[in-house]
Amino acid sequence: MTQTTDLLRSTRLDNGLRVVTERNPSQRSASVTWLVPGGSACDPLDRGDGWGTILSEFLLRGAGDFDSRAFSDALDRLGMRRSVTADTYHQHVNATMAGGELIAGLDRLVDLVRRPRFPEAALDAVRSLCLQELAGVEDDPASYAGIRLDEIRFPSPFNRHGLGVKEHLEAATHADLQAHWDEVARPEGSILAVAGDVDHDRVIELLEARCADWHGTGPTPEPTGVAVGGELGIERDTSQVHVGIGLTGPVASDPDQLAFRTAIGVLGGGSSSRLFLDVRERRGLAYSVSARYAEGFALGACTISAGTTPERVAETLERIDAVLAEFDAGPTDEEVTRIAVGLRAGGLMQQEHGPARARQLALDVFRRGQARSTAELLAEFDGIDADDVRRVVSTRMGPSWRAEASRCLLGPANVIAEVGGTGA
To answer: 91 in helix, strand or coil?
Structure first.
């Protein structure tokens, strides 16, 4: 099945693999994002927390007829910039190369996904890299506070940071990883997107030839149980206190998603936002304060972050609560217009960046069911309506929304005891 919209084309192969391409006549390069099931939420909870991270490092260590060195050399000869990273649902196989090398590059990427070598001799080195990354998770207190906030705000299996558990990483065997990849890396659930100098028909011809005998359905994890919620205090001998407040938000397919994103932009998106002007500029309570929204497939989230001093943390929290309560009246027309202009400008710039565009196409297909053309994206931004944003604020961001917030604080023990939260 093929769908066509101007330069944007989409095909679903017989085995379930979805392929979307967008040709940009002004670009000479082609960027690829291939979402393959096998992200951190697909890891076995009881013994494999971190397998996705190991696999993201392991996948580039040789594929098909090439060992690790030969595979790297082959990709270099194509001028390919590449990476593999694990998110919650997928392994992201990313590559950018000259458009003239796209078909040869995709041929190699098919090997990476379908015929990875996983050299057993390299496992200890791969494991060591993953353990080093895990060991450094607390080196950035602000990021660590965000990680711990996610542990209490999201239900399993979405409450994990993905870097794994030390004991699970140490115990992972070559057979474990090979069997896990063979199980999860399936065409149904995989999405391949290409943006830039691309010929859709040639891409489909290659994939049909190389993937005709690839079958099966990859996992799509779903929330299980309920989130812990509440407050968490992390006692650390630091000179600053890091605050994270977690609130719910619409999923990507929700019709209110864009209005909600606009509202969060007014609330905490930049130096003209309400939180920044009140907490930082007028009162000097926090050296950083912001709010951001992340749409997702199964869960959406709003996060308010602040960095302050132990002496000012209580007042900082009071002012954040006050700004949120004052926001019940909704944003002004001018505030909505300012955020809408910024969103449109960001959307335009993203369209000109091949890797970002390929990633957006793939995630659109996963989260929304189909990719949006540049014209459709810009039309959405142009259609942002202040009254609709105020409606969403009124119906989805009121007292009950605030009451369900989770909160994490990282700082000195006396501060944690004073402002609340269970020490950890």
So the answer is: strand
Tokens representing 96 are 């950018």
CA atoms within 13 A on the CB side of 357: 27
Instruction: Give which of 22, 25, 27, 54 is closest to 38, Cα–Cα.
Output: 54
- CA dihedral 293→184→201→84, nearest 10 degrees, is 60
Q: Where are the extended beta strands (E) located within 77-165?
A: 81-86, 90-98
pLDDT tens by residue, 264-318: 999 999 899 999 999 999 999 999 999 999 999 999 999 999 999 999 999 999 9
Crossing angle for the helix pair 354-368 and 333-351, to the nearest 10 degrees: 110
Cα–Cα distance between 50 and 23 in angstroms, integer?
36
Nearest CA-CA partner of 21 in 35, 3, 36, 37: 3
Which residues, including other chains, have CB under 8 Å from residue 67's CB and lie 6 or more apart?
117, 119
Residue 422 binned pLDDT confidence (cut-offs 50, 70, 90): low
Q: Which helix (H) or strand (E) holds 241?
A: strand 241-249
Whole-angstrom distance, CA of residue 303 vs CA of residue 201 = 42
CA 157 from chain centre, in angstroms, equals: 15
C-alpha distances out from residue 395 to 78, 154, 328, 330, Å: 52, 22, 9, 11
Cα-based torsion angle of the residue sequence 251, 329, 269, 245 in order, rounded to the nearest 10 degrees: -70
**Contact status, residue 64 vs residue 118, Cβ threshold 8 Å:** no
Read off the pLDDT of each residue in 121-145 and give the average, rounded to a whole number: 95
pLDDT at 4 over 60: no
How far is residue 48's CA from residue 52's CA, in Å, rounded to a whole number?
8
Distance CA 88, CA 86 (A): 7
189 three-state secondary structure: coil
- Tell me the chain's radius of gyration from C-alpha atoms: 23
